[in-house]
Design brief:
The chain is of the alpha/beta class and 318 residues long. It has 14 helices and 10 strands. Helix content is 47%, strand content 14%.
Length: 318
């Protein structure tokens, strides 16, 4: 059986990441949404997404020699930016392998934190293979985007915050890319308050976790297609899958149109800038309208979106 993270792992991670990660607010938009809905605004983190929690938690635990030689990752953007920021703060050179289709705002973000950016292919598999090759050639330490105990524990610190901010929370809705965020949040919540429901959300065109749960084992999709670039991995991690199967109550899907509508809804009604990946949870809340007693929290996982992209989405949902 795959060992899962513990509450002590997450609490230890919280102490580490407190040096850089913000305790992000819960914004109550229940009036605007006409239902119970609070937003966990991870888009307000220093690198614009929740990823700083896991990245910093891992880089901080590397040896001095590993940090001196440098770190590398593969990412559609948000994890790459977070690792670059963590590496800069901890004195480590950083390399990020991104897809050729990476959003300019995410590429510029990684470079602004001092990372070397390499472009490779369009899929998570393409960039992982290139990152592994670069790591072996240069003696760099891999900081994976989601499938690592230290990464999952770091992401779980957001779950601890939600419980501290709203002890009466009834349900938490979380976007799923590779699964690191929901794995950590679900572990934090279920190991503390098992009655709280945890619901995962994937785009219809990238429902790798839902397919894996149905198969009983991680599966690789032939392809993924969605406007939510951060939710496009073709396969969940082995560790993240194990955590989701153990701790998550339900995984649902939303359409790209629903995601686009949620991005614009957040901008217009909550004054929150969210990228499509970060708005998937809100799309699920607005369309499914969970009938639960008590507060519902949707994690807005990232806000790295350019004005031109925001305008494109606005035209889509007209």
């Amino acid at each position: 059986m795959t060992p899962l993270i513990t509450l002590d792992d997450i609490r230890a991670a919280a102490n580490r990441v407190a040096k850089i990660a913000r305790v992000t607010p819960l914004l109550d938009v229940s009036i605007q949404a006409e239902q119970s809905l609070l937003l966990k605004c991870e888009s307000l983190q220093p690198s614009g997404a929740f990823k700083i929690r896991g990245a910093y938690n891992m880089v901080a635990q590397l040896t001095d020699d590993q940090r001196r030689r440098g770190v590398i990752t593969y990412s559609s953007g948000n994890h790459g930016q977070a690792m670059a920021l963590a590496a800069r703060e901890l004195g480590a050179p950083a390399v990020v392998v991104m897809p050729k289709t990476a959003a300019r705002i995410k590429v510029e973000g990684a470079r602004s934190f001092g990372a070397e950016v390499i472009f490779e292919g369009t899929t998570s598999v393409d960039r992982r293979v290139r990152a592994e090759r670069e790591a072996a050639a240069r003696g760099l330490t891999m900081v994976p985007p989601f499938d690592h105990h230290w990464i999952i524990a770091g992401q779980g610190t957001a779950g601890l915050e939600i419980l501290e901010q709203r002890p009466d929370v009834a349900a938490v809705i979380v976007p799923i890319g590779g699964g690191g965020l929901i794995a950590g949040i679900a572990a934090a919540i279920k190991l503390t308050r098992p009655e709280v429901k945890v619901i995962g959300v994937e785009p219809e065109g990238a429902a790798k976790m839902k397919a894996s749960l149905a198969a009983g084992t991680p599966v690789t999709l032939e392809k993924t297609e969605t406007i939510a670039d951060g939710l496009m991995p073709v396969r969940p991690g082995d560790l993240t899958f194990a955590h989701v199967r153990q701790f998550v109550d339900q995984v649902v899907t939303v359409t790209d149109l629903q995601i686009a509508d949620a991005v614009i809804w957040l901008f217009a009604n909550a004054k929150i800038v969210a990228e499509p990946s970060g708005a998937a949870s809100v799309a699920a809340a607005l369309t499914a309208k969970p009938r639960l007693r008590g507060p519902v929290v949707a994690v807005v996982s990232g806000g790295n979106i350019g004005m031109e992209r925001l305008d494109e989405l606005r035209k889509v949902v007209r």
